[in-house]
Amino acid sequence: MDLHTPRLHLRELSLADLKAVHHLHSLPEVDEFNTLGIPESIKTTEHLLTDWLVQQQATPRTSYIFYTQRVNSEEFVGLIALNLGKANFKNGEVWYKFLPTHWGQGLTTEALTELLNFGFDHLHLHRIEAGCAVENVASIRVLEKAGMTREGRKRQILPIRGNWVDNYFFAILETDRSAVH
Q: Can you tell me which family this protein belongs to (predicted)?
């Protein structure tokens, strides 16, 4: 399954993407608000990637994880995913990680908007959520530009580099669609 935007091609993640995923997760800038931490080795990343692939192949499917690249050059820019909740709730949660060299260009917002459209139009979800560390100003802006609403704050929920960090919760409903179109 592939998704497309004017500048991006989102294709499902595969084991062949291991080196790119490891590089992304090994960057301190990307890890700043990440609860996983920097992987100790490529083997650690391989275990993570394998877990993600199992989620993508589950029946019923529990996750859509996309390797995101530029349309013209096929240059890797990052990862974006939609994890599904229980079917009767018709909800999901998005997350993303992009290479710092592609920050500030609107690419994350573009990819997120396409993923939200996919969730509502093809998976018929009612609600899509996201979490974001309160100090991650750039990610907060991405979520807002994609039409998501900040609904609340949980105190000291994220274990990041030995500290407990607060997290904002965002969501968009299928009835909020005018915000993403």
A: Belongs to the acetyltransferase family. RimJ subfamily.
Q: Domains (ranges, CATH) in the chain?
A: 2-130 (3.40.630.30)
Q: Using the 8-state DSSP alphabet, how is residue 176 labeled?
A: G
pLDDT tens-digit profile, the chain (181 residues): 899 999 999 999 999 999 999 999 999 999 999 888 889 999 999 999 999 999 999 998 999 999 999 999 989 999 999 999 998 999 999 999 999 999 999 999 999 999 999 999 999 999 999 999 999 999 999 999 999 999 999 999 999 888 999 999 999 999 997 644 5
Which pair of tokens denotes residue 150? Answer: 């900040």
CA-to-CA distance for 17 and 161, rounded, in angstroms? Answer: 26
Cβ-based neighbours of 71, under 8 Å, separated by 6 or more: 4, 5, 6, 7, 8, 9
Range 102-136 burial, b when 16+ CB lie within 10 A, else e? bbeeebbbbbbbbbbebbbeeeebebbbbbbbbeb
